[in-house]
Design a protein that fits this description.
The complex is a heterodimer of chains A (about 120) and B (about 110). By secondary structure, chain A is mainly β. Chain A has no helices and 11 strands. Chain A is globular. Chain B contains no helices and 9 strands. The chains are: A mainly beta (about 120), B mainly beta (about 110).
């Protein structure tokens, strides 16, 4: 079965760090472009970051310089390292697989992991 | 990276058709045929319903259809069913390897 399972969320103080993981099964993470998308409580979806099969990475302006997306091919796992966290980073974080042969969609989503930034 | 504009809510009766609009700019919706639509039930992950403006993934009902004109994309749901009640989000590729989502539309089936 093709699926994504996120972990690593939790409560962190402003200015702190957290690393999210997204374990994939049923497909190879390095063969697809993969993204992180977040959703603040009661709010809409916000694209956060992408990593392409070739390893190139890109970020939303709101997290550029603070977040780092990466992957471990041997573990078939995607990561999001989040530093200098702010209250406005509080959200459910989803990892999502890019649909092959198009930049038009994310076809597989994880269940999400909650990140709360608060003192 | 401003969010795409969607109506906050739409409603319809079972069996009816509804359309949700998604307005962007020439830098996102109008510039690429990379518009997708997602359905999200409360507490659940988003589900891909439409990609590349009008294509349906395998397993998605043909009651769901998508289109685009200029800077505005649309999702139409025909033959409304109770289980269609959910939040719907549009998303567009915005160039330079970035994506932008709409603010979301709450669909109520009366």
């Amino acid at each position: 079965e093709v699926q994504l399972v996120e972990s690593g969320g939790g409560l962190v103080q402003p200015g702190g760090s957290l690393r999210l993981s997204c374990a994939a099964s049923g497909f190879t993470v390095s063969s697809n472009y993969m993204s992180w998308v977040r959703q603040a409580p009661g709010k809409g979806l916000e694209w956060v970051s992408v990593i392409y099969s070739g390893g190139s990475t890109y970020y939303a302006d709101s997290v550029k310089g603070r977040f780092t997306i990466s992957r471990d091919n041997s573990k078939n796992t995607l990561y999001l390292q989040m530093n200098s966290l702010r209250a406005e980073d509080t959200a459910v974080y989803y990892c999502a697989r890019g649909l092959v042969a198009t930049l038009g969609a994310f076809d597989i989503w994880g269940q999400g992991t909650m990140v709360t930034v608060s003192s | 990276q401003s969010a795409l504009t969607q109506p906050a809510s739409v409603s319809g009766s079972p069996g009816q058709s509804i359309t949700i609009s998604c307005t962007g700019t020439s830098s996102d919706v109008g510039g690429y045929n990379y518009v997708s639509w997602y359905q999200q039930h409360p507490g659940k992950a988003p589900k891909l319903m439409i990609y590349d403006v009008s294509k349906r993934p395998s397993g998605v009902s043909n009651r769901f259809s998508g289109s685009k004109s200029g800077n505005t994309a649309s999702l139409t749901i025909s033959g409304l069913q109770a289980e269609d009640e959910a939040d719907y989000y549009c998303c567009s590729y915005a160039g330079s390897s970035t994506w932008v989502f709409g603010g979301g539309t709450k669909l109520t089936v009366l």
